[in-house]
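Weekly puzzle thread! Below is a chain. First person to post its structure in token form gets bragging rights.
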Amino acid sequence: MARRRTPRETLAKRALIRARELAEEVNQTAERVHQHAREAYRLTEIARREAERGRELSRAGRMEARAVANSIKSSVDVTNNGGARRATKNDD
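Winning reply:
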């Protein structure tokens, strides 16, 4: 004949089952958190690369703008020093 469990054994078994369920939930949550952390790290690396690329483009743009400004300044200096003169009606 099968022995009946005492209420204490039944409670212990239920507690054990619940503890296993909670442990599985904790494992699943930890796995999700780890996946999110890996994705955050990946996105952070992409952001760092893009920020560096932006800084490089900004430097190149500033250098190009300086070159254009210097070119315009040189042209203005040549014009002001008589390197070029205005066309008049008598030039026809």
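Puzzle host: Confirmed. Bonus trivia for everyone else. The chain has a mean pLDDT of 88.
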